[in-house]
Amino acid sequence: MSSPTMTGSQPRTGAPPDPPPDRKLPSGRRSWRRSLRRDWQLYSLAVLPILFFLVFRYLPMIGNVIAFRRFQPGGSILGEEWVGLRYVRMFLSDPSFWQVFGNTLRMGLLTLLFCFPVPIVLALLLNEVRRTALKRFVQSISYLPHFLSIVIVAGITVQMLASDGPINHILTTFGHDPVRFIQEPGWFRTIYVGSEVWQTAGWGTILYLAALSTIDEDLYEAARIDGANRWQQTWHVTLPGIRPTMITLLILNIGTFMVVGFEKILLLYNPLTYPTADVVSTYLYRTGVESNSFSYAAAIGLFEAIIGLVLITSANRLSRKTVGTSLW
Question: How much is the pTM?
Answer without folding.
Answer: 0.79
